[in-house]
Amino acid sequence: MSTFEVRRSAVIPAPAEEIFPLVNDFHEWTAWSPWESVDPGMSRRYFGSGSGAGAGYEWSGNRKAGSGTMEIVESVPSRLISIRLEFTKPFKALNPTSFTFTPAPGGTDVTWLMTGENKGLGKVFALFMNMDKLVGADFERGLAALAATVTAKKG
């Protein structure tokens, strides 16, 4: 079985207490998520608790956006957020995702990690597409946007 891992980190010039709420609440993702602009007509539905463990987000969009759900399964204030990310289109996949927040010189080191298995159509797709290159660039854009969002909220 073929597994993959996509990991990106960035030092965001703010304390974890200011960054954490932007990831812990899916309503805040519209400000920084690299995928929000993929499909302007994308439908979104929030479910479960407002933020933290049990908070959920469901999306359905065009071919590029696909569809799926995210649910926060673990939330340790200012330290860790674990998300169950499930894609239903363009192909089914379950990709455990996490964000860790570690104090660092100049701010907080935020690490965004997604893991998964390539099976079925995903395995065929993986032969032609490098998940690290494909998703890694999105993660880099997202972390940069997260830093910009935190900075704007301070201003």
Features:
seven-stranded antiparallel sheet, Alpha-D-Glucose-1,6-Bisphosphate, Chain A, domain 4, 26% helix, alpha+beta, globular
Secondary structure layout:
Layout lengths: L1 E11 L3 H9 L18 E6 L6 E6 L6 E10 L3 E10 L3 E12 L2 E12 L2 H8 L2 H24 L1
Antiparallel strand pairs: 1-7, 2-3, 3-4, 4-5, 5-6, 6-7
Q: Care to describe what's here?
A:
The protein is α+β, with helices and mostly antiparallel strands and 155 residues long. The protein has a single domain (2-154), classed as START domain (Alpha-D-Glucose-1,6-Bisphosphate, Chain A, domain 4), CATH 3.30.530.20. It has helices spanning 16-24, 121-128, 131-154; strands at residues 2-12, 43-48, 55-60, 67-76, 80-89, 93-104, 107-118. It has a 7-stranded antiparallel sheet. The protein is globular and about 45 Å long.
